[in-house]
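Dear support,

Our group has been running a series of protein-ligand predictions, and this particular one with pyridoxal-5'-phosphate is the one our PI (initials K.S.) wants archived with full inputs and outputs. We had some confusion internally about which version of the output was final, so please treat the block below as the authoritative record. The input we submitted was:
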Amino acid sequence: MPGFEIFGDEERKQVNDVLESGILMRYGFDGMRNGHWKAKEFETTFAKKMGSEYCQLVSSGTSALTTALASAGLGAGDEVIMPSFTFVASFESILALGAIPVLVDIDETLTLDPSSVEAAITSKTKCVMPVHMCGSMADLDALQAICTKHNLLLLEDACQALGGTYKGKALGSIGDLGCFSFDFVKTITCGEGGAIITNNKDYYVNSDQYQDHGHDHVGNDRGAETHPVMGYNYRISELHAAVGVAQLGKLDYILAIQKRNYTIVRNALESIEGVTFRKVPEGGEENYSFVSFFLPNEELAKKAHKALGEGGVDANFYWYTNSWHYINGWEHLRNLKPLGNLTNEVRNQLEKLNDTDFSKSDAVMSRTISSLVKIGWTEEEVLERAAKMKAAILSVL
Ligand SMILES: *Cc1c(COP(=O)(O)O)cnc(C)c1O
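Confirmed final output from the archive:
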């Protein structure tokens, strides 16, 4: 998954274009920037690559999610349905607006379970936020049907699934809005950065204004611009965007190597009786950043995870007890540890978390191991890794 593995001269060249003029901001200073508009260049290229009308680059994946929600008019008291297995950014981005995160179960896709989503809908629900974890996707047709039926926004968190597709379309481009992260460990990186894509012009214009204090970006005198809406500062710097421009040029290469390496590992694990794989919805193609597989039960999964480490195979994740990605680990959320006050509505919802039944998610997550696919490995190294993985897993079965 990590683009940082192939940081090189291309990134240095793009950053130097910016350093030569010293114009580190993405807006204005037209005469001084030697014609370089790295953020704009990234947005144009990325929108085209994703098959979307519009792209808005921002400072992180988390701020992309908040900006996307804000752009569609979500705010205090609105409920957003999100999965129990995700990165903490999901609930952070919702809470930042005073909106209410409603956590529901995942299924063997490792993403939102459509029946759990439907069961969680109330009169306050405004948005369903599937998170395409570890390179593969939610059942987007099922979720889209639910959203259409109940008039809800579908916001795809594709931060971990750049390059994956569903029925021929780029993940992130299928819902009303899609978000990406370009933090340091993602498929491509800006150092820090994120993006929103959409085909909806209103959402795009709102995003553009919201992420820059409400600036309307009309004309070429920044100080004279008007502020149609209240915004915030989630701008990306031109330096970060420059890194992203170079990394975007490497995306196809990254995806091809990931697929090669994934396939070698997957083939080795396929032959183990007792190992099964995450479900990929029909018509979906992963971005191959992780091989996620199931052991028959929790005890064997824990043993297999331990055996992998002891067998010298790095970068295997047992999310069930990993503090950042599953509800089990989010004590600060479940036990209400904000720095300041929460609204009563948010507090009431979060207080329910300790009593909510997530046994459906537990039954999947307790058996899941995800193995990172790196792009720096040679074919020989992956073959060796795959053999070691197979031996380690067989030793506990
Ligand atoms: C990384 C990530 C984010 C947040 O992105 P940042 O750029 O680190 O803020 C959000 N959602 C998911 C699923 C992620 O993996």
